[in-house]
């Protein structure tokens, strides 16, 4: 019974009861022939396939001949269809390592031998498959239908190794914050596991069932069969995993044990893992088996109730007619598969899934030979899951292709129209909608004739055509042709010269102009001259028209245009009313009694052969959507869910929708303590054995944190001791205190010399302007003058290529509104420079400045704050050097070296900008060149891969793995539109190769690489150390900055 139910879940081929076994055999045999015929001919039109079988009386050879002859009559259409199916996403993506297929048989010609060879080849394939696998033709037909209904991840088929998350060595980075949801670690391309498990875990009723599960008493000592050997250990690991997700102190937990049991069971004889849809089916099967064993033990002698069946399984009624014979059959279903292609929203998918074939005979008393069936739900499960089949099988390429079409789905789904109890009402409404849509199609066709008028390739709105005609008729009439009224004897300026006789008007041989003519007369060239002659009308106009003719014509055109506009408005209004009528057809309260709220959306990004999975899950307590992406769990929004799930915008789209009955709140409600009435949360939700399990794990994590803290404290103590030792040595040797390198150098370098000159100029001006000549008075005056100069620089608008902040720290501090005490101490440090001591006047001022520095008390100027501001300035200069170096390398097309400089420049700059708008450089500029550098590297790597040369391919993939892929999370983390589009472009470039023929080793490398590229996580797993920076003086830094900006402006002006 269970296997039969699974087949119904996969295919929706609904089989009647045993007493109608002949109907079952006929349906199944017909389906098998249809699948074989579709595979041989590549025809996907079901009605055409059924017609071929009917004409041939079930003979496969004659059916193929019928189809190939029929297709041969329209070769152009078939050719176009073929190229639409097999063409890659973009013309710029070339074929990689393509080879001709010598086994392809041409069925478009008239050669009957080819036809027989195709049939024989198909039958031989079926026979050989049976000999090798022991699977019958009917089972192979089911397998083919299953293959044609799956759009999930096959990248692990040829993967030689997997990418595993690397944990941060700092346990504080892995510590859970408050009661945030716990993520799941990706232990090797297991994002599919995380997405499904998180969706089920957040169904609190399901969570309670798993946590409180206890194995049957009879199997505590020794399980009886293989199923118990497998399912019971998995249930225990799932309980352990759920308990950690409830009470762990970790930010994310490791699901390796549960995953390993699943992987071992999923592997076939060829060690090939099945897809994520099969995983979901099998997971529920295992849970059903485990709970069934427990239910049978708890209710001896009674029919046991299985909570998994009650939670996830429903029933439907298949009402059908087969060759004039009516039948009804009730079946169970779990996950309900829906086709996506050709539909715009979920209701359209459901309507199509609920009706198969021609169903007119179902509603009529007359006996008819037509066949078809309707499906009506008799009992819906509390958790209603839809599988969205987002792929089609490309017959030409022999592989599945993902369907990226947009499919909308609501947050609240009313299932009343699909219930058996509403069968008659729904049929009436469906018939009314069908009639309205037929009328709508007619109205749209009529409206199109008004909006696209004409018989040529270019069409225009009829109202505009009449308006243009009216404007033409109303133009001022002219009496000459537009060519004859041009004076060809004069230049455009109006001066008259020698009469020019065109060659086609000359009656004799060309005449030579008189020698006495002193100048050459310029000729007007009407087809090349940019300015029109002044007497040429600006618009075409009628040649001859009377006032009476114009009056009659204008009257008619006005009337006709008014009639056309009224007709267009009436048609548009009628179309709008029909749309509204269809939209509200099921809006009455009687058809809104079965509400299902969207609980989770499982998303796949990538192609049919490779991709990444994550889930959006609604949190009813916080009333927001959460995004579960492996170890990352973040707040999201309905808008983000729509963008990632509807499809049509990116390579991401929903492949599974989980709805829950909105009238059964127990599904998502927390459990209450029976004695206190308080909500159970955290460890209180766990049974005793799991409490102990989580407690032990938390103690291990606490110990890891404690050991880390001790280690860090020891390191800090050693660093402090080393620093103290160094300071003692400095005091012993009486070495002068060194200020920051941009303020003072131990020897007169470029920076210190320039700073010394600025200081001396301020002292000289103060000496000239100040009457009192005491050192302290001169110092105060010089500081005021220097501050005024720097203040003007800070307030001036700098020319392009000049950044006054690079010239002096005070400019940086002023622009970022540093405290006054920080500014004063910094200026005092400048005037306390020992290099000033070349004459007595400067030496005395320097000594006063140093004395003032010594007198500053800690409570007056916070030394930590002072150091922080100076460290920020050092970081600003360092960021500038990263930026300049990266931009210089980028302009030299050295993208490999430029990338790291630009990456670190952007990251450091962003940290600076978090503290203030003027702490760093233009973020958009850095973001643009960081993005462009990655795109250039992606382009280079893709070109190397396309070369198919082993060395080039290895280098190209190395560039992607070592440089591009580690940087993608940096573009995703801030979620800016341009960065997202750049990532999408890079991914599309590589995903396009999935639809191309290539050598086996290239295919293996591609399938190994794509999951890394398609990983949507924003977790930065590994990164290169920042490149070492050279030391530049302030003058050199300012000059390089100016040159780089000038080069960028020139590049921008040239459009590069």
Unreliable sequence segments: 1-25, 72-112, 129-165, 268-274, 488-536, 730-749
Q: What is the multimeric organization of the chains shown?
A: single chain
Calculate the terminal CA-CA distance, rounded to whole Å: 68 Å
Q: What's the gyration radius in Å?
A: 40 Å
Organism: Gouania willdenowi (Blunt-snouted clingfish)
Subcellular location: Cytoplasm; Nucleus
Biased composition (Basic and acidic residues): 750-772
Keywords: Coiled coil, Cytoplasm, Hydrolase, Isopeptide bond, Nucleus, Phosphoprotein, Protease, Repeat, Thiol protease, Ubl conjugation, Ubl conjugation pathway
Describe, in plain words, how this protein is organized in 3D.
Strand 3 and strand 4 (325-333) form a beta hairpin. The chain has 31 helices and 16 strands. It has 1056 residues and is of the alpha+beta class. The strands form four sheets. Strands 5, 8, 11, 12, 13, 14, 15 and 16 form an eight-stranded mixed beta sheet that branches. The chain has a four-stranded antiparallel beta sheet with strand order 4-3-7-6. The longest helix is centred in the C-terminal third of the chain and has 46 residues, at 688-733. GO terms for molecular function: cysteine-type deubiquitinase activity. Keywords: Coiled coil, Cytoplasm, Hydrolase, Isopeptide bond, Nucleus, Phosphoprotein, Protease, Repeat, Thiol protease, Ubl conjugation, Ubl conjugation pathway. Pfam families: UBA_8, UCH, USP_UIM_N.
